[in-house]
Amino acid sequence: MPDNNFTGVIQAGFDIIHDNKDSVNHSVTVTNTSMKALHSSLTTIFIPTVYIFIFIVGLPTNAMALWVFLFRTKKKHPSSILMANRALADLLFIVWLPLKIIYHFNGNDWTFGEPLCKVLVGFFYGNMYCSAIFIACISAQRYWAIVHPLSQKLSSRVTVCVCVCVWIVVWVLTVPLYLYDQTVKVNNLDITTCHDIIRSNQTYIPVGYFLTMGTVGYVVPCVVCIVSYLLTFLSLRRSITDSSRSKKKRKAIVLMVTVLVMFLVCFTPSNIMLMVHYSLLGAKIPNNVYVIYIVALCLGSLNSCLDPFVYYYISEEFRGYVRNALMCHHPLTEPMSVSYSAVKTYTNSLTPPTNTTSSSTPTSSPTSTPIPALKVYN
């Protein structure tokens, strides 16, 4: 039997939604404050405009990156496997944005039905957290390649297994999003919202889900990124430097700082707001941080269109791959090195090779003998 006394809670947390009068459609009536939020230019103009920019920029750049990693390189290395999965997560996040754009431009009125709303929400959050986790994996892989260049390398098979496990874990964790109503009919606005309103008798599901995903999908990757880049930075500072290498090392450090800052700026505000909102919601404390959260989430989504330029297109090798792909050249077999490849990494066990002479090779002075560099591959 349907519940004749549905009470909803707007996720924006402005007010408690009044009791509904429609037991058949399970609709609700919202307060004036909530009405203003749902019809504000912030949610109906600004947010969809940002999503349009993300879609226009992110779709071709991530698609090109994925194509290069999958089809233009014959030999798959751990770094390229991780970055291919990173690009795939961004791409799956972006391809669903047109539905959100239409929804917001339409006055936050969802016209595509409950099943498609659930799929949109599942893909939106699932791929967002997948993206954050793969950033952490790439950070850890780069740390290991730079700081421990002579140690056991991560094999491609193990890397594939890690990626599969990440996808499985994240998508299993999105199952709760399909277990409660994502669409709610709003009587006094004559609209149907998608994920912006939940009923009070269903709050325990999203509260548990988002607090769990905030921890697994943000807190853990954030700690991994900070620790990995901090240890890498300290290692680079201790490495041997000379006038020819100092500029390259500075470039690598700038890249590390850029990646870390971009991760923190894009993911931190929205996830903090998310966990604060759902913690208060779980404690049945009214709050008004949800609108701040969806704006932060929208701006944080810029990460998906900025990543290709930070991770891929700053690399001269990757740009060469793209040029070869566009000119239909044969796939390349050499591994790609990005900015960190310019940094020479040494250990105490490494010594410069002794100079050998032969009748066909002129003798070189010991001071001119180059120290072999360890090329670090992404």
UniProtKB/TrEMBL annotation:
<dbReference type="Pfam" id="PF00001">
    <property type="entry name" value="7tm_1"/>
</dbReference>
<feature type="transmembrane region" description="Helical">
    <location>
        <begin position="158"/>
        <end position="180"/>
    </location>
</feature>
<keyword id="KW-0812">Transmembrane</keyword>
<dbReference type="InterPro" id="IPR002281">
    <property type="entry name" value="Pro_rcpt_2"/>
</dbReference>
<dbReference type="GO" id="GO:0005886">
    <property type="term" value="C:plasma membrane"/>
</dbReference>
<feature type="disulfide bond">
    <location>
        <begin position="117"/>
        <end position="194"/>
    </location>
</feature>
<keyword id="KW-1015">Disulfide bond</keyword>
<dbReference type="InterPro" id="IPR000276">
    <property type="entry name" value="GPCR_Rhodpsn"/>
</dbReference>
<keyword id="KW-0807">Transducer</keyword>
<feature type="region of interest" description="Disordered">
    <location>
        <begin position="351"/>
        <end position="371"/>
    </location>
</feature>
<feature type="domain" description="G-protein coupled receptors family 1 profile">
    <location>
        <begin position="61"/>
        <end position="311"/>
    </location>
</feature>
<feature type="transmembrane region" description="Helical">
    <location>
        <begin position="45"/>
        <end position="71"/>
    </location>
</feature>
<feature type="compositionally biased region" description="Low complexity">
    <location>
        <begin position="351"/>
        <end position="370"/>
    </location>
</feature>
<dbReference type="GO" id="GO:0007200">
    <property type="term" value="P:phospholipase C-activating G protein-coupled receptor signaling pathway"/>
</dbReference>
<dbReference type="InterPro" id="IPR003912">
    <property type="entry name" value="Protea_act_rcpt"/>
</dbReference>
<dbReference type="InterPro" id="IPR017452">
    <property type="entry name" value="GPCR_Rhodpsn_7TM"/>
</dbReference>
<protein>
    <recommendedName>
        <fullName>G-protein coupled receptors family 1 profile domain-containing protein</fullName>
    </recommendedName>
</protein>
<feature type="transmembrane region" description="Helical">
    <location>
        <begin position="83"/>
        <end position="103"/>
    </location>
</feature>
<keyword id="KW-0472">Membrane</keyword>
<keyword id="KW-0297">G-protein coupled receptor</keyword>
<dbReference type="GO" id="GO:0035025">
    <property type="term" value="P:positive regulation of Rho protein signal transduction"/>
</dbReference>
<dbReference type="GO" id="GO:0015057">
    <property type="term" value="F:thrombin-activated receptor activity"/>
</dbReference>
<dbReference type="GO" id="GO:0007596">
    <property type="term" value="P:blood coagulation"/>
</dbReference>
<feature type="transmembrane region" description="Helical">
    <location>
        <begin position="123"/>
        <end position="146"/>
    </location>
</feature>
<feature type="transmembrane region" description="Helical">
    <location>
        <begin position="209"/>
        <end position="231"/>
    </location>
</feature>
<keyword id="KW-1133">Transmembrane helix</keyword>
<keyword id="KW-0675">Receptor</keyword>
<feature type="transmembrane region" description="Helical">
    <location>
        <begin position="290"/>
        <end position="314"/>
    </location>
</feature>
<feature type="transmembrane region" description="Helical">
    <location>
        <begin position="252"/>
        <end position="278"/>
    </location>
</feature>
<keyword id="KW-0325">Glycoprotein</keyword>
<keyword id="KW-1003">Cell membrane</keyword>
